[in-house]
């Protein structure tokens, strides 16, 4: 009855709201749609918001939200979650543009929200300046036990697409290779947030644009193994690792395979366990800094 289908928004605690607003507006190219109670809301193009910056004494991720459809009311979904041993709070008007949401903690204590509807942004479409990604593509978080997290999100209807060994699990709720992944680690917090670009040309133009605006790459670009996305990474002004990617695998859930691509080595390409060495940089390029 519950169909979670989209990573809708990610909220960050920020210490220097102005610096982070400038990054999301002028570098990323998202549109500021609202600002109230110490939070700034940004839209990639259509939704009221996809990124929330919340003023704080700390930096880092504070919550993330997924949109869903369901047969019944939000109270029915709350009851459904309860039947899965997930205690959720029903929130009224939790954010501008969102009238109702269910909020709960996942096994690692991350705050997750499920919402059925979000208003459209008043002003829509892509900005003229900045990177202007298609969307917030996926979120990678550090957890104490990736296996446990994968099992939890499977209960919510997510599908486990790939593993890197036994410490990095990939999950999707739509046709993207992953919208979430979990990295077993002794520390907590976000590993990276990934923004989807349109093409490799868009990525190359973006790297020139970033360089001219003082944003330096940390890793990449190269094509990953799991997901096959061409990816590169940089830090935002508060040290959050941001991935820019394009050309990720498309999952055909009904067949349990990824849509074939010339750079695949398995035909059909099915969800599998990758070794770290074969997975990170398929182009064979070595980078100074390790990703995991
Ligand atoms: Fe990623």
Automatic annotation (TrEMBL):
InterPro entries: Fosfomycin_Res_Enzymes, Glyas_Bleomycin-R_OHBP_Dase, Glyas_Fos-R_dOase_dom, VOC_core. Residues 6-117, 135-247 form the VOC domain. The keyword Metal-binding applies. Keywords: Metal-binding. Gene3D superfamilies: 2,3-Dihydroxybiphenyl 1,2-Dioxygenase, domain 1. GO terms for molecular function: metal ion binding. Pfam families: Glyoxalase. It comes from the Bacteria. The keyword Metal-binding applies. Transmembrane segments: none annotated. This is Glyoxalase.
